Amino acid sequence: MTQTKIIPIFPLDLVLFPRQELPLQIFEPRYKQLIDDCMLGDGQFGVCLVDSSNQIRGWNGPKSVGTIAKITKCEDVEMNSMQLHVQTMGRSKFRIKKIIPPSIELPENYDPYSIEGHQVISDLNEKSPTDEKMYIRAEVELIPEIDDNISLNQWEYLVNLWKKKTIKQAFPQVIEPSSLDLILTQYYLTTDTPTIDYLYSLVALGAQDPNDLQPILEANSMEELIKKVEKLMTII
């Protein structure tokens, strides 16, 4: 039976992969509420790439597949708690089954960086039912982990594609192969025993836009994943 649960959703302009670290600076009242609720619970929320075509009460909604983030550390950046620094770690992937809209609509001319904007959100929240939340929630189903192995030959092939892509994109600047080997070393991507986590890190290096990474996250098998990585790394 598919496991489902209701979790807070944090749409961001990035893709989080399982077992990757994600630091966050939290300043918006609705996401401070999200973090506070998580700290009182199991410390987990869903991170999804923003889907600007999916508006939920005026706010940008999430793509349908994301990754659960586990809070590992949370501290105030300022004494007045206006900003939080949160460390998280990616866990399992999930697929959204049902969106639970936030309690408040996006205010007109809302500025999330201003004190006035924060006050507007706080005022709207006070008028909302106490059992509702300012942030998006969703009923989600967990996606099983890809447990197949990647061969060393497949890994070296994809690494070479990444090198060729990087060299082409840098033209007319000339990049020496030794420089690319140094980058791989700096990102701990020199290995004889590659895993899926190495693939995730490699595509993060090779992508120019977060939307390039969403298909990688949505892959359901190692075969599908390798094909999508190959496509991402290939310049026609």
Structure description:
The chain is an alpha+beta fold and 236 residues long. The chain contains seven helices and seven strands; from the N terminus they run E-E-H-E-E-E-E-H-E-H-H-H-H-H. A five-stranded mixed β-barrel has the order 1-3-5-6-7. Helix 3 packs parallel to helix 5 (196-206).
Domain module tally? 2
CATH structural fold name of the largest domain:
Archaeosine Trna-guanine Transglycosylase, Chain: A, domain 4
What is the mean pLDDT? 92
Low-pLDDT residue spans: none
Number of helices: 7
Task: Give the name of the CATH superfamily of the largest domain.
Answer: LON domain-like
Gyration radius, rounded? 20 Å
Q: Short description, anyone?
A:
By secondary structure, this protein is of the alpha+beta class. It has helices spanning 29-40, 115-126, 152-170, 177-186, 196-206, 210-217, 222-233, and strands at 4-12, 21-26, 44-56, 59-62, 65-76, 84-100, 137-143. The mean pLDDT is 92.
